[in-house]
From TrEMBL:
One of its GO terms (molecular function) is ABC-type quaternary ammonium compound transporting activity. Keywords: ATP-binding, Nucleotide-binding, Transport. CDD domains: ABC_NrtD_SsuB_transporters. The lineage of its organism: Bacteria, Bacillati, Bacillota, Tissierellia, Tissierellales. This is ABC-type quaternary amine transporter. InterPro entries: AAA+_ATPase, ABC_transporter-like_ATP-bd, ABC_transporter-like_CS, ABC_transporter_ATP-bind, P-loop_NTPase. PROSITE patterns: ABC_TRANSPORTER_1, ABC_TRANSPORTER_2.
Length: 255
């Protein structure tokens, strides 16, 4: 079926901690991610969320099993799969517009077209006035907007986001959650988003998976059945939040 973007078959990931010790982070993980799906991954620290995301990005290979991206075995990163990290990862010596254009420079796109794309994304994130500013002149929220725009400028099919709003203050975080949903609805990307915040997952996701430290097992896999724009005062919102918090607490008890 062509609406499956990722298919993971019995994925395993073992790291060599040192010459003697191996660490099995993920074992027998099966997962399908659909086109346009907004999937959030939550789980205790160290359960393998970032490892899974790096495997989805083609940055790391599983040590067991297969990963398919649109029906083909994924062996290395591709420009169709974009990534956004918590620490913005902008080039400090480049301006906002140069950062957004970064990925475009490596493609055979005319200067004129590049400028058009950069202008479009600057406008989308509301930072046109800051086009010549350097990252250090911007707040954390503004920098993360630039990082998101830089990924989107490459027109990826999938956006992988590793705790992108984790370092932001509560107000900016809520603003960026709304913005991201607006972008996702407009551009219809598939998004895989890691968060430590259950509330953020319930606000954003179509589907939430909860991983445990028990070799990255998926303990909970639920659809969020609340229409958008979600109202945090909706009783179902509180109910799902509590269900996930209880599941996390149970995991911490057994680990
Ligand atoms: N390159 C590596 N070599 C060895 N061990 C690693 C490597 N990368 C990750 N690990 C280990 O694998 C485990 C899972 O790490 P990972 O970063 O995927 O977890 P996480 O769920 O994203 O954690 P957090 O929520 O704290 O970011 C951890 O014990 C970590 O120390």
């Amino acid at each position: 079926m062509n609406n499956i973007v990722f298919k993971l078959n019995n994925i395993g990931k073992v790291y060599n901690e040192n010459e003697k010790n191996e660490l099995t982070v993920i074992k027998n993980l099966n997962l399908e991610i659909k086109e346009n799906e907004f999937l959030c991954i939550v789980g205790p620290s160290g359960c393998g969320k970032s490892t899974l995301l790096r495997i989805l990005a083609g940055l790391e290979l599983p040590t067991e099993g297969e990963i398919y991206y649109r029906g083909r075995v994924l062996k290395k990163p591709t420009k169709d799969i974009g990534m956004v990290f918590q620490n913005y990862s902008l080039m400090p010596w480049l301006s906002v517009e140069e950062n957004i254009a970064l990925g475009l420079k490596f493609q055979s796109i005319s200067k004129e077209k590049q400028k058009k794309i950069v202008d479009e994304y600057l406008e989308m994130i509301g930072l046109t006035k800051f086009r010549t500013s350097k990252p250090y002149e911007l707040s954390g929220g503004m920098q993360q907007r630039v990082a998101i725009a830089r990924s989107l400028a490459n027109n990826p099919d999938v956006l992988l986001m590793d705790e992108p709003f984790g370092a932001l203050d509560a107000y900016t975080r809520i603003q960026l959650q709304k913005e991201l949903l607006r972008i996702w609805e407009k551009h219809k990307k598939t998004i895989v988003f890691i968060t430590h915040s259950v509330d953020e997952a319930v606000y954003l996701a179509d589907r939430i998976i909860l991983m445990s430290k028990n070799k990255g097992a998926i303990e909970v896999d639920i659809q969020v059945d609340i229409p958008r724009i979600r109202d945090r005062a909706n009783p179902r919102y509180a109910e799902l939040n509590q269900q996930l918090l209880d599941a996390l607490e149970d995991l911490n008890k057994v680990e």
